[in-house]
Amino acid sequence: MGVDCGFDVYPSLIEDLQGLYDVFLDEVIEKYKNELNPSTGEPLIQIIGKPETKNAYIFFNVGEGPILPYRCEYFLRFESKLVKRDNVFPYLEGVYLIARRYFNGFVQFWASGMSPAWIGVPNAKTEEGPVRTDHEHIYKMMREILRLVEEDRERSTQVDSGKEAT
């Protein structure tokens, strides 16, 4: 029995962000490509399938085998149970911190039954990560999407309370 831990992506990424997502995946691969699972000595990550296909993903050979799909619209969660045989937490945290740099408003770290602050993971909602200047146009689009989502949320709150704005 263990604690589930990881991060969610919400709202889900749209296909228009595939280019930025590819750069995110490249950074994850670059960071972990030469690492071995300390428990088994096997390569830490494996690429399953061809990246251009819908069912391709990056498999982490640690914990319960968290995966990163190659298609951004399928990227909803990165998680594993924290198990004794493998220390999976550093990998969950590492991928989260990379994802936060690319998709800051879209990722939220969680641990079942615990506050992320308790386990020492910085959260995008309370601590901003550095903005990647090499993809500023994508960030402008993401900020606009978040602004529109917030406007829609406010509008639906007003409608629910009977104060519909015109």
Features:
single chain; 166 residues; alpha+beta; 2 domains; 6 strands; globular
What is the element layout, followed by pairings?
Layout: E1 3-9, H1 18-32, E2 45-48, E3 57-60, E4 67-69, E5 77-82, H2 89-102, E6 107-111, H3 136-160
Antiparallel strand pairs: 1-5, 1-6, 2-3, 3-4
Walk me through the structure.
The protein is α+β, with helices and mostly antiparallel strands and 166 residues long. The protein has two domains: 126 residues, no CATH class; 36 residues. 33% of the residues lie in helices and 17% in strands. The chain has three helices and six strands. The strands form two sheets. A three-stranded antiparallel β-sheet has the order 5-1-6, covered by helices on one side. Strand 2 and strand 3 form a beta hairpin. The longest helix is centred in the C-terminal third of the chain and has 25 residues. The radius of gyration is 18 Å and the shape is globular. About 7% of the residues have low confidence.
Structural class: alpha+beta
**Kindly state the mean pLDDT as a whole number?**
79
Count the beta strands. 6
Radius of gyration from the alpha-carbon trace, in angstroms: 18 Å
User: Which series of helices and strands comes N to C?
Assistant: EHEEEEHEH
Strand content: 15-25%
Describe, in short, the structure shown.
By secondary structure, the protein is α+β, with helices and mostly antiparallel strands. It has helices at residues 18-32, 89-102, 136-160; strands at residues 3-9, 45-48, 57-60, 67-69, 77-82, 107-111.
